[in-house]
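Why does residue order matter? Because the sequence determines the fold. Keep that principle in mind as you read this record.
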Amino acid sequence: MKKSLILPVAVLTILLLSPFSVFAISWPATFTRHSDIVIAAAGNYEPSGLAWNSVTNKLFSVCNTGQVTIMNLDGTEQDTVRMPSYMDFEAITIANPNSTKAFIGLENRDSILEYDWQAKTLTGMTWNLTGVLTGPDNQGLEGLTFVPNGYHPFPSSASGGLFYAGIQRAPTPGEAINDDYLLYAFDIDLSTNERIVNWYGISVAAGTPTSDVSDLFFSKETGVLYVLYDGANRLIEMTTAGRVLNDYSNVPVADQEGVAIITSYPSGTAEVYLASDSSKLIGWFSGYPVTYYDADGDGVDYQHDCDDSASLYQKFKTYYLDADGDGLGNIFVPGRFCVPPSNYVINHRDNNDLVPR
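Structure:
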């Protein structure tokens, strides 16, 4: 039967993307597995989603019985909060690492909930996605991540970016158009309860699984969308437009429900965390290869490019303090800038920067 589509917005925009795939490679044995992390909370804790706050450098986890845990990256100093009643938490993401807010993906009903991790409580702000994420119970929202403006191919959001969501159920082309996808991008008004401005569907790439998305993680540092599939035991790296970059099969933990990629610039490898709900643990691996984001495609990553929106490479240069204002810099007081302050110059020919020449 044809499904109906109900949305709280007047305009619905779908972006159809050309499928692209690469061959999957087996999870490399060269990745080092550290001691597994077990959440020591009371009750039957099954980690079902992961996130990383790059400012506090803390790992976040949720459990599908309505618990949130914040911990160090090695699993120590765990702080777990249980909601007053059962809630099917399946995913968590950080939109602004400088704030105290996190956003939780709820599967039943498919929704995004705002959580204040400092106050340890849900704020009451919620956004119902069931007008788009149609499907049977326990086949709905499983993955959630935030992609800032400038890192996705869609119109910019007033909220600073889009929430990408992934679902378990297989697409059903030929029925309602919103059933054609596994990955969705939502423009949500974070200042207004329940207001979804727009949504976009991302076509399933050729050669990738057609069901069982279990988590999503976007890394601003790498510009990559990491898509985890528990049924297929796959971790696939994609662009935010859905083009496949790398595809890992035989992901080692069982029933993968969460993923987080922790970078540490300038290291070319990252830590990867994989949550297993059936094994009730988080697998922790190092040696995962990463390349840092290059938005303008000029071959220089954003850490070294003064303007990563312009294809002409503009690199940081070393300037020298000119304290006495004579146009000559002090070799002992350098600084690296794109645009130097008024009291810095490019040369270092002053042997007495207290006395103008």
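The first strand starts at residue 25 and ends at 26.
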